[in-house]
């Protein structure tokens, strides 16, 4: 408002103008915990502390500024005070008027300074009737915090792609400077407004300050425990172990650092999750809920904590048991779920019989399968497949079985029937030799049976095989090969490839929310004593075991099995 009045007095309004439209989402649209944000932003606007934008030339460098693109005069978002924003998710459009300078030529970027109290989510800037260019569109999709939080100005580029060598000269320093900012300097604890993509080991899973039983080895950076890198947070070390990063309190889990643009952008994600259920959970009021409300954005809490009398986690009846409550026990259903369930990627064609182990016989003795042709010959009529969890679990089985969880290493043979369905041929369950690993494995082979004791034992064998399959899926197929292995690529892409790079634009949609999900997983799922250790059979050795498996991870092999 003040800027418009000054322009009228000085005659600036008589010069040629370029009209633009900025689309953004104000903070109070997305964060119900700060109702004062909108009011304070309006106060700043009244004091002349608005949101300014400057166009950056893509064709003319400024000799006084190291030949970086020449800057236009600042222009300010108009009518911020009078633009009413609803308290439900939505966008606001603001007009902006630039004084046109012929020396700017074609704009290739713009600089934005947020002088308000609160951050906002910047969607786009569209310029109309730019001389010689027509309409120019900038796709931003980024949080812009108050300028006081940044060491350098925020810059956004036009919606075009350039290889580094093809980037217009006046934009090259802006391109390079943006990457330098995103890399950070490797020091200090990162705050929510920081835009730093840096690497760290998985040294934040343990919590020795809580109790030494929650201490966990550092994953990554060693030959013993190799692991993909995670995003750095810079939190100080724990008091009892300088190699372990301190942890956030549980109720602060959503505040774990990831670059703000990596956080969930829309609450529809939570609605998609809730659509799996038939209702909501009734949550009792109390101090704990109040504490959660103080640290979790209210609109997120609103999605997760229903107040309409419905019950969360009331699942619909699975179709498998709608008609027959015992249908899950059949061999046909067991094999169907192997293929149509969570973890079909580990099924392999049986090319060698009996199956042989790849474990070092000098360390683990004879780990080859004890399944013989007598076990399966009466059932063979087509191709045979295997699901082999033996070599993955056997090295850790002795340790796993010292916990409250008990299990076996397993091999499951399946065969493809003439009608195109699978059925189990045999399940081999193995334990470490009581006299030591070098004596090999103690194997027991189970074959299909329907009645009596043998039928019950067969059901138990299938249960152990299914438990192994579930654990393999959660720890390796899903977490390690899908989440953990991808995070370094997310970090590297943002550190090394400018948003102008065509490869960056191709990769970015596939990386959405990965860092945020992984950070939350480190806080409440895969941490010491977390959900995974409490529910998946390797227990406290779960993540350590996934590190040992990662020793054999190869990009070309993993890319064909995920």
UniProtKB/TrEMBL annotation:
InterPro entries per the UniProt record, alphabetical: LipOase, LipOase_C, LipOase_C_sf, LipOase_CS, LipOase_Fe_BS, LipOase_plant, Lipoxy_PLAT/LH2, PLAT/LH2_dom
Domain PLAT: 33-158
GO biological process: fatty acid biosynthetic process; lipid oxidation; oxylipin biosynthetic process
Keyword Metal-binding: yes
Enzyme class: oxidoreductase
Pathway given in the UniProt record: Lipid metabolism; oxylipin biosynthesis
Gene3D superfamilies: 3.10.450.60, Lipoxygenase-1, Domain 2, Lipoxygenase-1, Domain 5, PLAT/LH2 domain
Annotated keywords: Dioxygenase, Fatty acid biosynthesis, Fatty acid metabolism, Iron, Lipid biosynthesis, Lipid metabolism, Metal-binding, Oxidoreductase, Oxylipin biosynthesis
UniProt-annotated stretches for the region Disordered: 223-245
Entry cofactors: Fe cation
GO-annotated molecular function: metal ion binding; oxidoreductase activity, acting on single donors with incorporation of molecular oxygen, incorporation of two atoms of oxygen
Lipid metabolism recorded as keyword: yes
E.C. number: 1.13.11.-
Listed SMART domains: LH2 (SM00308)
Domain named Lipoxygenase: residues: 161-562
Quaternary structure note: Monomer.
Family: Belongs to the lipoxygenase family.
Function: Plant lipoxygenase may be involved in a number of diverse aspects of plant physiology including growth and development, pest resistance, and senescence or responses to wounding.
Name of the protein in question: Lipoxygenase
Annotated organism of origin: Vitis vinifera (Grape)
Lineage: Eukaryota, Viridiplantae, Streptophyta, Embryophyta, Tracheophyta
Encoding gene per record: LOX1.5_1
């Amino acid at each position: 408002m003040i800027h418009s009045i000054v322009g009228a007095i000085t005659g600036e309004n008589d010069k040629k103008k370029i009209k633009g439209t900025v689309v953004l989402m104000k903070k109070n649209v997305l964060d119900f915990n700060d109702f004062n944000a909108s009011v304070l932003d309006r106060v700043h606007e009244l004091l002349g502390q608005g949101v300014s934008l400057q166009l950056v030339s893509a064709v003319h460098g400024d000799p006084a500024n190291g030949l970086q693109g020449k800057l236009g005069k600042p222009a300010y978002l108009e009518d911020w005070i009078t633009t009413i924003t609803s308290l439900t998710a939505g966008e606001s459009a603001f007009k902006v008027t630039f004084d046109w300078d012929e020396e700017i030529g074609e704009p290739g970027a713009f600089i934005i300074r947020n002088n308000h109290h609160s951050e906002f989510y910047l969607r786009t800037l569209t310029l109309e009737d730019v001389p010689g260019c027509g309409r120019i569109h900038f796709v931003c999709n980024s949080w812009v915090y108050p300028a006081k939080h940044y060491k350098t100005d925020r810059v956004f580029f036009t919606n075009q792609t350039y290889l580094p060598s093809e980037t217009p000269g006046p934009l090259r320093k802006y391109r390079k400077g943006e990457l330098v900012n995103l890399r950070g300097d490797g020091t200090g604890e990162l705050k929510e407004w920081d835009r730093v993509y840096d690497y760290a080991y998985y040294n934040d899973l343990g919590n020795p300050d809580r109790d030494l039983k929650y201490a966990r080895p550092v994953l990554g950076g060693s030959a013993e425990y190799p692991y993909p890198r995670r995003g750095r947070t810079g939190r100080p070390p724990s008091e009892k172990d300088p190699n372990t990063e301190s942890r956030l309190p549980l109720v602060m889990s959503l505040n774990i650092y990831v670059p703000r643009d990596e956080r969930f952008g829309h609450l529809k994600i939570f609605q998609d999750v809730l659509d799996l259920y038939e209702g909501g959970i009734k949550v009792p009021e109390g101090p704990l809920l109040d504490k959660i409300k103080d640290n979790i954005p209210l609109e997120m809490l609103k999605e997760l904590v229903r107040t309409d009398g419905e019950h969360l986690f009331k699942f619909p009846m699975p179709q498998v048991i709608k008609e027959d409550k015992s249908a899950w026990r059949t061999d046909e259903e067991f094999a169907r779920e192997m293929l149509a369930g969570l973890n079909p990627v580990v099924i392999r064609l049986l090319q060698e019989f009996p199956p042989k182990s790849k474990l070092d016989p000098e360390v683990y003795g004879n780990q080859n399968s004890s399944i013989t042709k007598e076990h399966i010959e009466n059932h063979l009529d087509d191709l045979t497949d295997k699901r082999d969890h033996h070599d993955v679990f056997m090295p850790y089985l002795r340790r796993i079985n010292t916990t409250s969880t008990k299990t076996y290493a397993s091999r499951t043979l399946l065969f493809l029937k003439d009608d195109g369905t699978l059925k189990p041929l045999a399940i081999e369950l193995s334990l470490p030799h009581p006299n030591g690993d070098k004596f090999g494995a103690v194997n027991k082979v189970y074959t299909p049976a329907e009645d009596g004791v043998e039928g019950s034992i067969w059901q138990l064998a299938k249960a152990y095989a299914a438990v192994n399959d579930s654990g393999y899926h959660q720890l390796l197929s899903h977490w390690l090969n899908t989440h953990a292995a991808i995070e370094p690529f997310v970090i590297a892409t943002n550190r090394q490839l400018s948003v102008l790079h065509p490869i960056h634009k191709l990769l970015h949609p596939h990386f959405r929310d990965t860092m945020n999900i992984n950070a939350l997983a480190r806080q409440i799922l895969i941490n010491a004593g977390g959900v995974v250790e409490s529910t998946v059979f390797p227990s406290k050795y779960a993540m350590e075991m996934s590190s040992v498996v990662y020793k054999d991870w190869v990009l070309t092999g993993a890319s064909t099995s995920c």
